[in-house]
Amino acid sequence: MAAAYTTRKKDVESGAAAKASDLIEALGTAPFLKAADDDAEAYAALQRTWKESSMPPEEKSAIEARALGIPTTLLEDCHRGILKIREFLPYCNTNIVSDAKVGIHTLAGAARSAYQTIMVNSPSDEEKVRLKQLLKEIRHLEDEILS
User: Burial level of 125, CB count in 10 A (0-12/13-18/19+)?
Assistant: First the structure.
């Protein structure tokens, strides 16, 4: 919403409207909605691995990798989205900058939720460290906008 309403004449003249347009394009909802559907499918497939003892190991590994990969990609996408919103904040219509900040908090919550899903899928220790670092960066960015 913040980007959609940063389209006034003075926003066009200052270049803020172009930044808003870029943000809208970068943060489309379709990939996030697809991730939710993909995660549901991956979980259903993962349940099969618990029930089908005759499943070939390669198939089981592929299913487990997908169940881990989907929330990992979601967390990374949330991190990227937060960075894009942060870059947009100086250009945002000052009357609705709080909406942009809400977007940061919403993506931060989604990133933390994805992290919890990742943890139940047993990532490597190196991956845990990498993902925790992304969450720390997200927390830092949230702390910046809370001041």
Answer: exposed
Q: Could you tell me the end-to-end alpha-carbon distance of the chain, in angstroms, rounded to an integer?
A: 22
Residues 6 or more apart in contact with residue 29 via CB below 8 angstroms: none
* pLDDT tens, residue by residue, 61-90: 999 999 999 999 999 999 999 999 999 999
144: its two tokens: 């910046």
- Give me the DSSP letters along the chain: -TTTT--SHHHHHHTHHHHHHHHHHHT-SHHHHHHHHHHHHHHHHHHHHHH-TT--HHHHHHHHHHHHHHHHHHHHHHHHHHHHHHHHGGGS-GGGHHHHHHHHHHHHHHHHHHHHHHHHT---HHHHHHHHHHHHHHHHHHHHHH-
pLDDT tens-place string over residues 4-24:
778 788 878 888 888 888 888
> What is the distance, to the nearest Å, from the Cα of residue 41 to the centroid of all Cα atoms in its chain?
19
Per the CB < 8 A criterion, the answer to whether 72 and 127 are in contact is yes
